[in-house]
Amino acid sequence: MFVDLTFDPLRFTSLKQEHRGSCLPEDLLGLAEYLYSNSGVVDYTVKGFVNENNMPVIEVAVNAQLDLICQRCLGGLQSNVSSKTRLILVKDESNLPEVEDEIEGEDVIVTPQSMSLIHLVEEEVLLALPITSVHDSEQCHRSDLNLDSANKASPFQVLKNLKS
Fold first, then answer.
1. How far apart are CA 152 and CA 6, in angstroms?
2. pTM to 2 decimals?
3. Where would I find the H helices in 55-116?
4. Distance, C-alpha 19 to centroid of its chain
5. Which runs of E-coded beta strand occur in 2-52?
6. CB 60 within 8 A of CB 19
7. Average pLDDT over residues 124-137
8. Which residue, 1, 20, 124, 136, has most beta carbons within 10 Å?
9. Taking a C-beta distance cutoff of 8 angstroms, is the pair 47, 84 a contact?
10. How far is 133 from 139, CA to CA, in rounded Å?
């Protein structure tokens, strides 16, 4: 079982702290509905630093091997998920940039009093999941994918048979 760590983000960044580790997919409760099984591992690195503009930054990187649910056949689908995001911390909402000024891969957030390591990791994994997870057509276990359309009766033929 993963033991969560709660920390002060400003202290974490000013001391240039770093936390690396691994957890199981089952430790990330928000991930449960996407998983076929709890097999796999999530490796993460969370580090704090001050950038060239003297802004506190928390960088979250995850690499995970997950057994996701195939949206087509509902079977297991091995998937590798990898993501890295920088969270730039600002004092209040007035310091948030305009949408057009945002930089891809960097999110600006109002500094919370404390942050949860498990929630940072979980959010990064959830944001990195594919929009739809499906097997390739030839690997999918769904039985009706390989049926010839010629083998299916036309619904109009069925109606014609009912009429006569």
1. 58
2. 0.77
3. none
4. 19
5. 6-7, 18-23, 35-50
6. no
7. 87
8. 124
9. no
10. 13
Query: How far is residue 87's CA from residue 134's CA, in Å, rounded to a whole number?
Result: 31
Classify strands 76-90 and 106-110 as parallel, antiparallel or unpaired. Answer: parallel
Tell me whether strands 35-50 and 18-23 are parallel, antiparallel or unpaired.
Answer: antiparallel
Contact 102, 36 (CB under 8 A): no
CA distance 123 to 81: 13
Spatial separation of the C-alpha atoms in residues 135 and 99, rounded to whole Å: 36
Distance CA 150, CA 68 (A): 33
Can you tell me the distance from the alpha carbon of 23 to that of 122, in angstroms, rounded to the nearest whole number?
10
Residue type, 115: M
Largest alpha-carbon pair distance within the chain? 84
Distance between CA atoms of residues 148 and 136, nearest Å: 18
Separation CA 9–CA 17 (nearest Å): 10
Write out the two tokens for 64.
């995970």
CA distance 116 to 144: 45
The pair of three-digit structure tokens given for residue 144, joined into one six-digit string: 């009706």
